[in-house]
Design goal:
With about 110 residues, this protein is mostly helical. It has 5 helices and 3 strands; from the N terminus they run E-H-H-E-E-H-H-H. The protein has one domain: Multidrug-efflux Transporter Regulator, Chain: A, Domain 2, CATH 1.10.1660.10. Strand 2 and strand 3 form a beta hairpin.
Length: about 110
């Protein structure tokens, strides 16, 4: 899979399975972590690092159930550890999905 230089907000929303308004809200709420550029029309363009940070925010809010203040504290405390934990959880969800599909097709 190739990494793009920029992702449009709709692409980010689709990748994270979130509404565009949620991505916009998180972008405005966490400016230290999500710093999209804007094109001539004013549309947000997210860097791969922004996408990684949005994945962390998604994980912390949706999986861990943290509040926005809790997310901000976690991002400031241990971003690298969180990235690793999020990757493990995503892999486990993928494995679970594959096992469920396999079970249903037997």
């Amino acid at each position: 899979m190739t990494t793009k230089l920029y992702y449009k907000i709709g692409e980010v929303a689709k990748l994270l399975e979130e509404e565009v308004s949620t991505i916009r809200f998180w972008s405005d709420t966490f400016p230290a972590w999500v710093k999209p550029e804007r094109n001539a029309k004013g549309n947000r363009l997210f860097h791969p690092e922004d996408l990684d940070n949005l994945r962390l925010i998604h994980y912390l809010t949706r999986v861990e159930g943290l509040t926005l203040d809790g997310v901000a504290r976690k991002l400031d405390e241990n971003r690298d550890g969180l990235s690793h934990k999020r990757e493990i959880v995503e892999k486990l969800y993928t494995i679970r999905s594959l096992l469920v599909d396999l079970h249903e097709n037997i």
